[in-house]
């Protein structure tokens, strides 16, 4: 294996749990709460590009409530999320230490728009581990769960897909990685339940890793067995 491709939200930084809380609270406030709360919502909406997320959520809320999302839903939610990110965004514990010890090439491939993606990595002090190899869904026609972004990252390094490992915490990201022909590690940090890990396996993840302490060994295993 030659290249490890990291998702950002929920893998490098704790933004996924920040977004998740803000989105669920706001949906509840407009009468569009999700049953089983985080688990059901995570399965459907984590890892999508903003445009795909908004379209899918619009359809879901309209089916649930009979009415569309408020016109200013996204702008209100973005304002709330931005305030929380500025206050609470942090590196996933031990990310820097583990990533620094990985022997393969590395990059980030995230559904987050490019400017905000770089801001997140800069804010928590991880950008130097990846710059300039920071790829956003802005760069491709189709975001996750399509494989386009991961294939773009592999091409940037002139590496074949089967020589790549993807580290993802969302079902949509796992599906994208497998569709690209890559090995996928399902990463379940603090915001993910054991139930979510089982879902990542059903989505095609080759293995599940619960914390950075175990990630380096998992990548080394792929490198020595393929």
Description:
- There is one protein chain.
- With 226 residues, the chain is of the alpha/beta class.
- The protein contains 10 helices and 6 strands.
- It has helices spanning 15-29, 38-45, 50-65, 73-88, 95-100, 114-124, 148-157, 171-179, 194-202, 212-225; strands at 3-6, 105-110, 134-136, 164-168, 183-187, 207-209.
- It has a 6-stranded parallel sheet, with helices on both faces.
- It is globular and about 55 Å long.
Topology, pairings included?
Layout: E1 3-6, H1 15-29, H2 38-45, H3 50-65, H4 73-88, H5 95-100, E2 105-110, H6 114-124, E3 134-136, H7 148-157, E4 164-168, H8 171-179, E5 183-187, H9 194-202, E6 207-209, H10 212-225
Parallel strand pairs: 1-2, 1-4, 2-3, 4-5, 5-6
Helix pairs in contact: 1-4
Q: In this structure, how is the largest beta sheet organized? A: 6 strands, parallel
Please state the average pLDDT score: 89
The count of β-strands is 6
Enumerate how many helices there are, as a single number: 10
* Weakly predicted, low-confidence segments: none
Query: Overall 3D geometry?
Result: globular
> What's the gyration radius in Å?
17 Å
**What is the helix/strand order?**
EHHHHHEHEHEHEHEH
Label the structural class. alpha/beta
Amino-to-carboxy terminus distance = 7 Å
Please give the share of residues in helix.
40-55%
The strands making up the biggest β-sheet line up spatially as 3-2-1-4-5-6
Beta-strand share of residues: 5-15%
């Amino acid at each position: 294996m030659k290249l490890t491709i990291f998702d950002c939200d929920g893998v490098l930084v704790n933004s996924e749990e920040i977004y998740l809380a803000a989105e669920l609270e706001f949906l509840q406030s407009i009468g569009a709460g999700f049953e089983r709360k985080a688990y059901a919502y995570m399965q459907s909406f984590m890892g999508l590009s903003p445009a795909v997320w908004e379209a899918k959520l619009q359809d879901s809320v309209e089916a649930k409530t009979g009415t569309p999302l408020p016109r200013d839903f996204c702008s209100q939610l973005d304002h709330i999320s931005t305030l929380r990110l500025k206050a609470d965004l942090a590196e996933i514990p031990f990310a820097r230490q583990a990533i620094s010890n990985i022997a393969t090439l590395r990059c980030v491939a995230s559904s987050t728009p490019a400017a905000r993606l770089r801001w997140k990595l800069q804010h928590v002090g991880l950008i130097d581990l990846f710059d300039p190899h920071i790829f956003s869904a802005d760069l491709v026609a189709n975001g996750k769960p399509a494989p386009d972004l991961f294939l773009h990252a592999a091409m940037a390094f002139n590496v074949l897909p089967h020589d790549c490992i993807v580290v993802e915490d969302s079902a949509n990201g796992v599906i994208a990685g497998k569709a690209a022909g890559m090995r996928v590690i399902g990463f379940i940090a603090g915001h993910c339940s054991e139930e979510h890990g089982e879902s990542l396996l059903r989505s095609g993840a080759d293995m599940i890793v619960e914390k950075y302490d175990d990630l380096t060994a998992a990548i080394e295993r792929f490198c020595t067995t393929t």
